[in-house]
């Protein structure tokens, strides 16, 4: 448990992706099975453990500690698991004991009956040190947040074994903790594991953004165009009764969309866009991305949620038709098969992404600039004769997005960055003007920490340091008056209403597009302009 | 004389009226007794200063030779009399030169511990328990959450990271008096003998420790001249924590921010400061040390000052030991030299 706890302590505080991967691969190298596999599962979110209620932990700690002292401690630390990890005092005779390995802790928890949990948790807390107790308590209270995605963990596995990340993604959902066969293969001690292949995740084919000269080199007659919808890319597998819905990175999101899973009465693997609303085959409309966000990241979906925010799939490709792997067939052949599959499925839950007829790239550009539906964010361009190629290969698929929105906003706060940027003010909160109590005031509308060059960062940082009004820890407020301040041109992908923000709006993917030293803050945009952009 | 007539808090600090002196006054006074050289305890501008030789030297390094009207060396263990009040100094184990000050008249003895700790520290003398009627203790880490791990394990974390990330400069934030030298010494004890780079603010105090016989190994200034951007890759650089948010830190290609402090025990603290590798190394007692010290000395009464007084007062109450918070202002319990 010691190595696992030390790993978590480092991961939580390490912002850089590459450094996280180094920490993970070093851990995989130094730790035996099954511990490393359980650690991997804990990090990637595939470990199912009995949970322990906070009330029980509180009772356990108060068996040995004055309540007032506990309250002072909890008030100071602010996190129950961390407080208990720190204040817990094992009896003298328990302290010299060997601390149990992670695998042993997990086995003991899985084996314990309901009435045994209390004494098991007490004994484990006695046997672990403070850092291990913290890791253990986070595991059993379900409060496990360390800033490592399942995807990053899989990348670390790929680096560890010297294989392509795609290979791991393909296998991932066919394997279970503690992943002994996976590690054996990655260490060259065994063959690649072969899970049953149809309900596992298959790496998706990705499109390249259209750049300056791309279209000049290809013929419109070789390509089909589809609208690019503002939903999320999914892969839907159905094999007998076994159905799985994956995100494009291979995370299993079936639990969040029981309505889709239930309607998926087909055999095969579909690639498509998940959207909210009703499929066009049932005459429905497509709703915005912010409606989709209501459904994402939810562990449990309520009945009201399912009624208010029904989901559907706009399908655009087929990887398996029944048992048959059709990925080597052409786009047109796959699409014909897909159309037949969709025809059999409930008309409110599934439709086929329509083709957009066009004769020239200029015509397509006009269509792209003025799409028929506000939930369209551009067009996809797909080679008619190409097969389904996993990964981002340049040539067969392009995405051509609508130009992003931009506004001119005023820098209000700046915060120091992390890692390489820890000596720079590189995270900026910006605002726009609005009327309050009869005068113009700035209201914050978003935060951005990229989009600028290193030279521009020097300029921004210098402005912050020379124009600080107040300091709050790592944050500074800066001069932001009608005639003095810094105007930033902010680009973003979309904007939605938000009750969590004071301004009432929330931007998607805001970034700093340009520094507008040529403008005065009074020339920056107003909140009304942003409200008008909400689609 | 009752203890609270012998010593009592005033806006300028803890005052002994009978002796006409203050202990660690926070404003200029005629006569000051100083426990140790940290800037919140040792200030410039007093008429007369009585402190250990090391503390006087440290004040001269920090404030210049004329930091006080006149000065007098307190030898550890030697009994002195000031206006009929007896005082004697004993090691506190906090930083080089740090002392507790015992103040007594007739049968009443109060020990002012100043800042102290009970762990082994290769850079100063260990704390010496002195029996007393009233023990005035600090409570910087006076909460049961503060149980500092062994410093060997904390230094081992740094050594592991150096091996894992040889391409990054390891920037260790450590307060310039005491902590920096202790951390360097602890690193040397692992057998690490490569040069350690130091921020200019540490130079004179490190030199002083070396003069006093504490071997810090090869130290070099962390200037760009000492070898261009790349040369700090895989090196240990020690500086005051404030410098890491400064432009100074930009000379390091891919810095890994580290902070050696007792506060690093609380993860949120480390996170807020952007620290990637916390080293929990404290120059103050943790909760267990505070309690063991009070249990060992068994004073008639405990007065608790800078820090989290309420928890320690509560603990004393549970033991049936009279205790009260002593509200002194001007000492830093956070962000200061902890
Ligand atoms: Zn001190
Ligand atoms: Zn102090």
Protein architecture, described:
The complex is a heterodimer of chains A (535) and B (338). With 535 residues, chain A is of the alpha+beta class. Chain A has three domains: 2-141, DNA ligase, ATP-dependent, N-terminal domain (DNA ligase i, domain 1, Orthogonal Bundle); 208-401, DNA ligase/mRNA capping enzyme (D-amino Acid Aminotransferase, Chain A, domain 1, 2-Layer Sandwich), CATH 3.30.470.30; 405-534, OB fold (Dihydrolipoamide Acetyltransferase, E2P). Chain A contains 20 helices and 21 strands. In chain A, the strands form five sheets. In chain A, strands 13, 14, 15, 16, 17, 18 and 21 form a seven-stranded antiparallel sheet that branches. In chain A, strand 13 (405-416) and strand 14 (425-436) form a beta hairpin. Chain A is globular and about 80 Å long. Chain A starts with a helix and ends with a helix. The relative contact order of chain A is 0.08. The mean pLDDT of chain A is 90. With 338 residues, chain B is an alpha/beta fold. Chain B has two domains: 3-145 and 284-325, 4-Layer Sandwich (Metallo-beta-lactamase, Chain A), CATH 3.60.15; 151-279. Helix content of chain B is 22%, strand content 25%. Chain B is built from eight helices and 19 strands. Chain B has helices at residues 3-6, 53-63, 151-164, 179-189, 203-211, 267-272, 287-297, 309-318; strands at 8-10, 13-16, 21-23, 31-33, 46-51, 68-73, 80-82, 85-91, 99-105, 108-112, 134-139, 170-173, 196-198, 219-221, 236-239, 256-260, 277-279, 301-307, 323-325. Chain B has a seven-stranded mixed sheet with strand order 7-8-9-10-11-18-19, covered by helices on one side. Chain B has a six-stranded mixed sheet with strand order 1-2-3-4-5-6. In chain B, strands 14-13-15-12-16-17 form a six-stranded parallel sheet, with helices on one face. Chain B is globular, with a radius of gyration of 20 Å. The interface between A and B is large, with 38 and 38 residues. The structure holds zinc ion (2 copies). One zinc ion (ZN) is lined by residues 38, 40-41, 115, 306, 331 of chain B. Residues 38, 40-41, 115, 306, 331 of chain B line the site of one zinc ion.
């Amino acid at each position: 448990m010691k190595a696992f706890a030390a790993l978590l302590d480092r991961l939580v505080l390490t912002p850089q992706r590459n450094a996280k991967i180094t920490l993970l691969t070093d851990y995989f190298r130094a730790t035996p099975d099954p511990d490393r596999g359980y650690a991997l599962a804990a990090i990637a979110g595939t470990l199912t453990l009995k949970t322990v209620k906070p009330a029980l932990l509180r009772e356990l700690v108060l068996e040995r500690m004055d309540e007032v002292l506990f309250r002072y401690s909890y008030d100071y630390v602010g996190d129950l698991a961390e407080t208990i990890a720190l204040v817990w005092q094992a009896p003298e005779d328990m302290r010299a004991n060997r601390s149990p390995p992670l695998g042993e802790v997990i086995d003991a928890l899985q084996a314990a009956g309901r009435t045994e949990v209390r004494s098991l948790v007490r004994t484990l807390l006695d046997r672990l040190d403070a850092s291990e107790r913290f890791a253990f308590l986070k595991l059993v209270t379900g409060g496990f947040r360390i800033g490592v995605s399942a995807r990053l963990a899989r990348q670390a596995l790929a680096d560890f074994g010297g294989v392509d990340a795609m290979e791991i993604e393909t296998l991932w959902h066919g394997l279970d903790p503690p992943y002994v066969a996976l590690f054996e293969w990655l260490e060259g001690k065994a063959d690649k594991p072969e899970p049953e292949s149809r309900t596992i995740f298959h790496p998706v084919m990705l499109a390249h953004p259209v750049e300056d000269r791309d279209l000049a080199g290809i013929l419109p007659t070789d390509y089909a165009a589809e609208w690019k919808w503002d939903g999320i890319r999914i892969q839907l597998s159905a094999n007998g009764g076994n159905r799985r819905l994956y995100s494009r990175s291979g995370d299993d999101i079936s639990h969040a969309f029981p309505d889709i899973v239930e309607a998926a009465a087909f055999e095969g693997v579909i690639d498509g866009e998940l959207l909210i609303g009703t499929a066009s085959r049932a005459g429905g409309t497509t709703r915005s991305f912010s409606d989709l966000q209501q459904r994402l990241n939810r562990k449990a979906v309520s009945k009201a949620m399912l009624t208010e925010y029904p989901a559907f799939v706009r399908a655009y490709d087929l990887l398996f038709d029944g048992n048959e792997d059709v990925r080597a067939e052409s786009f047109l052949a796959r699409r014909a098969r897909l159309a037949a599959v969709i025809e059999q499925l409930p008309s409110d839950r599934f439709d086929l992404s329509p083709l957009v007829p066009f004769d020239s790239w200029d015509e397509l550009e006009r269509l792209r600039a003025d799409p028929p539906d506000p939930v369209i964010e551009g067009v996809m361009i797909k080679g008619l004769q190409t097969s389904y190629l996993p990964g981002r290969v340049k040539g067969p698929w392009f995405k051509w997005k609508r130009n992003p929105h931009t506004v001119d906003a005023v820098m209000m706060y700046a915060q120091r960055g992390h890692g390489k940027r820890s000596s720079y003010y590189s995270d900026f909160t910006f605002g726009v003007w609005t009327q309050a109590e009869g005068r113009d005031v700035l209201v914050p509308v978003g935060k951005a920490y990229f989009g600028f060059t290193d030279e521009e960062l020097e300029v921004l940082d210098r402005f912050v340091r020379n124009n600080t009004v107040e300091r709050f820890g790592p944050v500074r407020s800066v001069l932001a008056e009608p005639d003095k301040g810094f105007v930033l041109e902010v680009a973003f992908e979309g904007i939605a209403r938000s009750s969590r923000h004071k301004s009432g709006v929330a931007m998607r993917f805001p970034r700093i597009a340009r520094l507008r030293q040529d403008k005065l803050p009074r020339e920056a945009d107003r909140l009304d302009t942003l409200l008008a952009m909400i689609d | 004389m009752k203890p609270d007539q012998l010593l009592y808090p005033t806006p300028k600090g803890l005052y002994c009226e009978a002796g006409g002196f203050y202990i660690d006054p926070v404003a200029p006074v005629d006569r000051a007794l100083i426990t140790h050289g940290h800037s919140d305890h040792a200030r410039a501008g007093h008429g007369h200063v009585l402190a250990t030789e090391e503390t006087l030297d440290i004040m001269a390094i920090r404030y210049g030779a004329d930091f006080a009207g006149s000065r007098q060396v307190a030898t550890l263990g030697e009994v002195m009399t000031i206006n009929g009040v007896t005082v004697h100094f004993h090691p506190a184990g906090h930083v080089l030169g740090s002392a507790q000050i015992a103040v007594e008249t007739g049968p009443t003895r109060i020990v002012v511990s100043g800042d102290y700790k009970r762990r082994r520290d290769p850079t100063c003398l260990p704390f010496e328990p002195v029996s007393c009627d009233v023990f005035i203790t600090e409570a910087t880490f006076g909460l049961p959450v503060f149980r500092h791990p062994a410093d060997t394990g904390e230094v081992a974390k740094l050594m592991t990271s150096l091996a894992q990330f040889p391409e990054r400069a390891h920037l260790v934030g450590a307060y310039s008096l005491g902590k920096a030298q202790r951390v360097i010494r602890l690193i040397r004890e692992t057998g690490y003998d490569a040069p350690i780079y130091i921020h200019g603010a540490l130079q004179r105090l490190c030199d002083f420790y070396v003069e006093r016989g504490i071997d810090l190994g090869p130290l070099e200034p962390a200037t760009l001249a000492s070898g261009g951007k790349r040369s700090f890759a895989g090196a240990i650089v020690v500086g005051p924590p404030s410098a890491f948010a400064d432009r100074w830190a930009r000379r390091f290609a891919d810095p890994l921010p580290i902070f050696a402090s007792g506060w690093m025990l609380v993860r949120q603290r480390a996170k807020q400061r952007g620290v990637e590798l916390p080293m929990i190394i404290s120059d103050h007692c943790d909760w267990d040390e505070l309690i063991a010290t009070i249990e060992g000395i068994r004073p008639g009464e405990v007065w608790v000052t800078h820090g989290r007084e309420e928890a320690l007062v509560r603990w004393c109450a549970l033991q049936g030991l009279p205790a009260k918070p002593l509200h002194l202002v001007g000492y830093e319990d956070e962000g200061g030299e902890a």
